[in-house]
Amino acid sequence: MSMPFSFKLRSKLRSKRVNRSFWGSFGLFTVLAFFGAFMILPLVYAINNAFKPLDEIFLFPPTLFVRNPTFNNFIDLMNLLGESWVPFSRYIFNTLFITLTGVIGHVIFASAAAFPLAKHRFPGKKALFQVVVLSLMFTPAVTAIPNYMVMSWLGLIDSYWAVIVPAFSYSLGLYLMKQFMEQMPDALLEAAKIDGASEYRIFWTIVMPNVKPAWLTLVILQFQILWGTDGNGFIYSEQLKSLHFAANQIIYGGIARAGAAAAVALILMSVPITLFVFSQSKIIETMASSGMKE
Amino acid sequence: MSNWWSLKWNEMKKNKHSYVLLAPYMILFAVFTVLPVIMSMILSFTYFNMLEFPKFIGWHNYSRLFLEDDIFLIAIKNTILFAVITGPVSYIACFVFAWIINELTPKLRAFMTLVFYAPSISGNVFFIWLMIFSGDRYGIANGFLLKLGILMEPIQWLKEEKYILAIIILVQLWLSLGTGFLAFIAGLQTVDRSLYEAGAVDGIRNRWQELWYITLPSMRPQLMFGAVIQITTSLAVADVSIALAGFPSVNYAAETIVTHLIDYGTTRFEMGYASSIATILFIIMLGTNLIVQKLLRKVGE
């Protein structure tokens, strides 16, 4: 019991395997390398473009890699931002506020709901979870129109909350959290119950610290959505608009902006990628329990 | 009967903590997911322009969709084409790459996972494909083909109908190794290793037999989860189409159900009609998922 259950999982990770022929491995790794190049080269190209002087972005024949790296694009970007009517820091604040509030709220709400679904027995449990699973099977596009009406009834149009509040109830997060919590040993919870702890206390002091890998997974999945939000059509005021929205105006601003566009794209993509690099092992640990049981 | 209810009621009272914990999430879920689905279905039988009260018109929106709206038929054709290609290809790609990556040493495995997963979390970086397939000779595709002498003049990749669909499929595939891929990576790492050793003793001689007889059956839960994710995204193509081919695209060559929905919902304000498009999309998504779930239950049985 002193051993966290995640260790059991790690001990299953293998390195050497039986039944492996050299040529089989060679062939498969070649395939992997080829497609890996397909995946990564567009990103490499995007990164290199950010450091290319304009005459290199428009060079014939085009080059993948930068020859004379420069920070001019970033300086251009700064100048461009300095001229914008709404100070650029405001867009950054908007996106940070939406992302942080949305992510924190989502982790707490989804975990609180996942705990009884994973560990309690009560009437309606199965039906509630089934509805959540069904909701994984369609995208928000389906509900866009009525969602606008609901937002307007609630008076949330043109405010951050129109993006933040629905993000709290993102269903993939609840699903993954519930599947992960199911693996927690019951003995851990029983012991606390015998000590007289309430369900809320058990949730906060025992369950939550034990599902840290799953938090990180919810954080990165939700972060990536909110970081890239353009306001979902709910936000009109320029001073409330998101970073992504402002960046798109530069990106689709035409040839003169090609350098600055590459720079802003690099900045925007580096944040979720960095976050993933640092949380990868925890995310994989959570995903191990993602399976759908019959 | 009243006895059954009072029994349930007592059970519910005993578990009131469970409901309290569930309440915040479930209330929001009901308001922002369940209610809108129901509203959308009701609105699909009305004429509604956001100003006047919705007017009930029966099945008219649906008959208009299938009998009068030629562009909707293009949208359905494209959506199905995208889904039939990107759905299975991305699903198999997620699994195959996860399976090969799983054979690597832990450090290399982490690196290759990042390589394959990175495009799907890079947000709007897919606009880089606009520069790769740009219509002038500075685009990578044109530049390369011109240099090799295969082309004599640049091709307007994203303006010619015959190329648009293929390019969107390519980019959609590039973006598709997301959550499902991670679930497979994770699932492969948890297959009990002793099964492989036992299999070797029982006469499994190569990795292909091992894959078929041991790995796939032990991963069925992840395979089902991955299928849901890949199917749902493959039916929802819109952002890539709008970013690359424009909105509307040349001759509606890249119109999908979702872009058609956006057209009627946010440009023309025909909300009843748009709701009927949404309802059809909902039925297609849910139906495909439920059928595939049924099929996957049979894997390895």
UniProtKB/TrEMBL annotation, chain B:
Pfam families: BPD_transp_1 (PF00528). GO terms for cellular component: plasma membrane. Keywords: Cell membrane, Membrane, Transmembrane, Transmembrane helix, Transport. It comes from the Bacteria. Its main location: membrane. SUPFAM superfamilies: MetI-like. It is found in: Cell membrane. InterPro entries: ABC_transporter_permease (IPR051393), MetI-like (IPR000515), MetI-like_sf (IPR035906). It is a multi-pass membrane protein. Residues 76-292 form the ABC transmembrane type-1 domain. GO terms for biological process: transmembrane transport. The keyword Transport applies. The keyword Ubl conjugation does not apply. The chain crosses the membrane at residues 21-51, 71-99, 111-132, 163-186, 223-247, 273-292. Belongs to the binding-protein-dependent transport system permease family. This is ABC transporter permease.
